[in-house]
Write a structure and sequence with these properties.
- The complex is a heterodimer of chains A (about 500) and B (about 140).
- Chain A is mainly alpha-helical and about 500 residues long.
- Chain A has 21 helices and 2 strands.
- Chain A has a two-stranded antiparallel ribbon.
- Chain A is globular and about 70 Å long.
- The two termini of chain A are about 20 Å apart.
- Chain B has one domain.
- Chain B is built from 6 helices and no strands.
- In chain B, α2 packs across α3.
- In chain B, about 35% of the residues are buried.
- Classes of the chains: A mainly alpha (about 500), B mainly alpha (about 140).
């Protein structure tokens, strides 16, 4: 009965459709795109507000009763994620207005990015595991095109790796769904959460299916040791595309992992916890070590995506109310921090024409505003108080100490220091270091942001400024945000409210 | 209709006569699809095949002028029709995509309702996509 649940799907879908109808009219497409993403942000905020006030919302598409039809359901966790899509969608679309070239816009950049939002929102809102697969496909097809759009050589190379690995993951995902359906005879996730625990005699098979899901979502979410497609492809498309990929795509993989392992596969908890903890630790460490060695800014940040996913997984592995809340909070924080860093990287590239840290330099002197806009997300990512990253890591580490998982706590602390180190490296190379003098000539090649016309400066810097502000707000006034995250983890751990909302007490 | 010389007179004449027949047939398949094999997807393919035949018999420009609309816009219109079929339910306070039917059955057409509207949307999207591909392949060579 609920329109609010379906709105975050309809709005980007309609935006994409109107974008297709305005094919060839660049101005109209840009206008539609901005209006559409603004409406999406509003719709997502309404959804979060309704969910936080009235509890979990569900709607049965086509009025087919659950568990037979497809359910769309929004609990606090999905609503938070949809809001993140709204925030990042609007920021990226505004940023893309001045960073995406005319040719790519003519090839349909704007309709496609909204199709990507459709897929991502669908994945967050569906309550049906096969439908989740469908949304993954919507999302992946849109992302394939966005990745190779423009047809540069490096893009095609990155695209092949991305497509191959993701198709493998999709096939495994589908196989896992098939096996699960064979075992239980249902695909509705709420119904599955009731049926799967009764399969005591087939516990082995259930664990196998769970591991298949872990493998499939592990590729999508770039977990150790399945992450290598990410740094091979994420630095090839235009920066606005990289931003939206890093903000949303891997997070959908992690979201799905958290969803299936809190809702469906809770039986073999000890085994799953060990596996997840080991993977989380290795993901963190290999990601950050990969980053330390990089001098290309986009590649460096791509490795950091992987490293941060380790933290998200750590929250799931510890499986306490605090740790899951920390994961939710961390997810929102890392989406903001990572995107802001990529956005700053895009501005640097715009000004200096390169992403190579060795060639960049001197930006602290000429553009202190830009330096501040980099400094805030960088320190937040490293976990310096009072920014959002501090509370996210603090809660995770506290949960780790409470459950006496000292190894993962130690790993996460070391990784924090290394993260700080590689952020300092960008700071030192791109901002503090003065550009080398060439042949005794004056220092040149460093253009301050102020040289850009205001019509470009605003779309470039405003999204970064807003995201940086959000990170400060989430850090200084963390309590309401963390309470929301705690509510989300509460719902995930008790499960009864979710099942009640979907199945309505029948079955 | 076209300025360029047709490849073969027989094929060109045949394509001209078969175009309306194939479109009619695609309509038939579209309408019969609800309970029997057929539907928007297959209907769309048949309709697109009619225009593809025109591309082979004449050239892309001829097929474009017969179609009279950019195929990519057809995709947009089709998606709009398909998503529109979900809205009546929503406006009446029922969940999105709820199937609604007009009561009196119309002879020859059968029962009209939102699922048929959805199929029409699919039909248009399929024509749009197939022709986008066919036209750009034909223009390439």
């Amino acid at each position: 009965m609920n329109v609010v649940v379906i709105l975050p799907l309809l709005v980007p879908f309609l935006t994409a459709i109107f974008g297709f109808l305005a094919w060839g009219n660049r101005q109209a497409q840009r206008l539609i795109s901005v209006v559409g993403s603004t409406v999406l942000l509003i719709a997502s905020l309404i959804l979060l507000w309704v969910v936080s006030q009235q509890g979990i919302q569900a709607t049965q598409a086509g009025d087919w009763p659950a568990p037979f039809g497809i359910t769309f359901v929004a609990d606090t966790f999905s609503a938070i994620m949809v809001v993140m899509v709204g925030v990042m969608g609007l920021s990226t679309v505004i940023y893309s207005l001045v960073t995406i070239d005319v040719e790519r816009e003519a090839q349909g950049f704007h309709p496609l990015i909204h199709m990507l939002f459709v897929g991502v929102c669908g994945a967050f809102l569906t309550g049906d595991i096969f439908n989740l697969y469908v949304w993954y496909e919507v999302m992946l097809i849109a992302s394939f095109v966005l990745l190779v759009m423009g047809g540069e050589r490096s893009q095609l190379e990155g695209g092949i790796k991305y497509v191959t690995l993701n198709l493998l993951a999709s096939a495994l995902f589908l196989a896992a769904v098939g096996l699960l359906y064979g075992l239980t005879g249902t695909l509705n996730m709420a119904h599955l959460s009731e049926v799967v625990p009764t399969l005591v005699e087939q516990q082995g098979m259930v664990t196998v299916v769970a591991m298949l899901f872990l493998f499939a979502f592990g590729i999508k979410g770039a977990l150790f040791p399945l992450f290598f497609w990410l740094p091979a492809s994420y630095h090839t498309p235009p920066i606005a595309v990289t931003v939206i990929f890093s903000a949303l795509l891997t997070k959908v993989g992690v979201y799905s992992l958290i969803r299936v392992f809190t809702l469906i596969f809770t039986g073999d908890a000890v085994f799953v916890q060990v596996v997840l903890l080991v993977i989380a630790g290795f993901t963190m460490v290999t990601g950050v070590l990969g980053a330390v060695a990089q001098y290309e800014m986009r590649r460096l940040l791509s490795f950091h995506i992987i490293s941060q996913i380790g933290y998200l997984l750590m929250g799931l592995a510890l499986f306490t109310p605090l740790s899951l809340a920390a994961s939710v909070f961390f997810m929102a924080h890392v989406i903001l921090a990572k995107s802001a860093l990529f956005l700053v990287g895009g501005v640097l590239n715009r000004l200096a024409g390169t992403y190579d840290l060795k060639k960049l330099g001197g930006f602290y002197r000429v553009s202190p505003v830009l330096a501040v806009l980099f400094f805030i997300p960088a320190m937040s990512l490293a976990g310096i108080p009072p920014l959002s990253g501090f509370w996210a890591k603090f809660a995770l580490i506290r949960a780790g100490l409470e459950t006496q998982q000292y190894a993962i706590v130690a790993a996460s602390l070391v990784v924090s220091v290394l993260t700080l180190f590689s952020m300092t490296k960008i700071w030192a190379e791109a901002f503090l270091k003065e550009k080398e003098q060439e042949d005794g000539k004056l220092k040149e090649g460093v253009e301050p942001v102020a040289t850009l016309p205001i019509s470009e400066r605003l779309p470039l810097l405003a999204p970064i400024a807003v995201i940086a502000m959000l990170m400060i707000v989430m850090g200084v006034g963390a309590e309401p945000f963390f309470n929301l995250a705690l509510q989300a983890s509460e719902e995930m751990l008790t499960r009864t409210e979710y099942v009640q909302a979907v199945l309505g007490g029948q079955v | 209709m076209t300025t360029s010389q047709p490849v073969s007179v027989i094929l060109a004449t045949g394509a001209r006569y078969s175009l309306p027949l194939m479109l009619l047939f695609s309509f038939f398949i579209l309408l019969r699809g609800h309970n029997l094999p057929g539907g928007g997807f297959i209907g769309g393919l048949v309709a697109a095949a009619a225009f593809a035949l025109f591309v082979i018999a004449y050239d892309v420009n001829a097929a474009r002028s017969v179609l009279g609309i950019e195929p990519i816009r057809l995709i947009g219109i089709g998606l709009l029709v398909a998503i529109g079929s979900g809205l009546p339910g929503l406006l009446l306070g029922m969940p999105f995509m709820t199937g609604l039917w007009l009561e009196p059955e119309i002879p020859a057409l059968g029962k009209l309702g939102t699922p048929l509207l959805f199929d029409v949307g699919v039909y248009l999207v399929v024509i749009g996509i197939v022709l986008t591909i066919v036209f750009s392949l034909a223009e390439d060579s």
